[in-house]
Amino acid sequence: MSTKDYLEKDYYKALGVSKTAKPAEIKTAYRKLARKYHPDSNQGDTKAEERFKEISEAYSVLSDEKRRKEYDEARTLFGGGFRVPAGNRTGGGGFNFDLGDLFGNTGDAGGGLGDLFGTVFNRGGRTTAQNRPRRGADVETETTLSFSDAIDGTTVGLRLTGEGPCPTCHGTGAKAGTVPRVCPVCSGTGQSSRNLGSFGISEPCKECRGRGLVVDDPCPACSGSGRAMSSRTIQSRIPAGVSDGQRIKIAGKGAPGERGGPAGDLYVRVHVKPHPVFGRSGDNLTVTVPVTFAELALGAEVKVPAHRGAPVTVRIPPGTANGSKFRVSGKGVRRKDGTTGALIVTVEVMVPKNLNGKARSAIEELREATAGADPREELLARARGA
Ligand SMILES: [Zn+2]
Ligand SMILES: [Zn+2]
Asked: Fewest C-beta in 10 Å: which of 69, 86, 129, 163?
């Protein structure tokens, strides 16, 4: 991407969002379009591929606060749809008006405006924005983990799509077996200067389009641009204890930087599949355990499944209410600091559907034995009293 891309391309239109769209809106629009036009689901459809590239390029600019600002400024200053003369299509060139000279001569155009132009086009020709190192864009991706992997941590393969060096020519833009040569017109500087009356213009060399190199036989895969959309799979460690919906930052695994700039960061949105037995509540695991009325009334020691290792024994004291919770420490989710959350056990009375003769008569006996005490007496009294 260069200044001329900024002037020629309407990234907002590419993503179908307004110029005032919030970052979240841009992201949503991008995701939707990227899914639709992804090469994986449009095999051999060159139109979809073109559209996918367009979407990705637009997103790489609009998702980066700094680049979006540069883009907006460039288009405000020169207007959208600005066409750059043919012959200036690719490479690191772009427009490099020597604005230092321009404003120097007019004298009164204060530093503010000069600085603004400076950020967009970088006055002085040689050290253009295109030549400075640039940090790679941040990249977003998603992954789905099993319940246990989310708790224990795991390594996942993440498939990332982005712009990188063309794999056919390794970024040189030259056809296999050929190499680019130093541009004879500008001797490899990529710049040519001329004086137009009161101010000088430093512009990209026409011969090499500002690259300083000329390619005699362009690489057929990238038409000589040296850039291509590609997907790569990286293995990434997901730390223990992540929860559903969490976003994890993996530093330095985003898009590669340009000209020695650092790589961007990778953000992974984690989805966690539910477990048939255990639930999660922060760092605690939860489980509901069926018990009998007798176990709650008389007290019991019951075996409870643990997420890791053998079942644990929970002691239920006599007279425990249905729905009571018991805490088994150390059987929850491992935290970053090495400590572990608890397993929260909820007891739930199971009422038998069919009773055999002996159990039935025992319960009938219980009913008779407890006939004097109406469990609803107090409730009814309180309801009357209110
Ligand atoms: Zn190529
Ligand atoms: Zn040249």
From this structure: 86
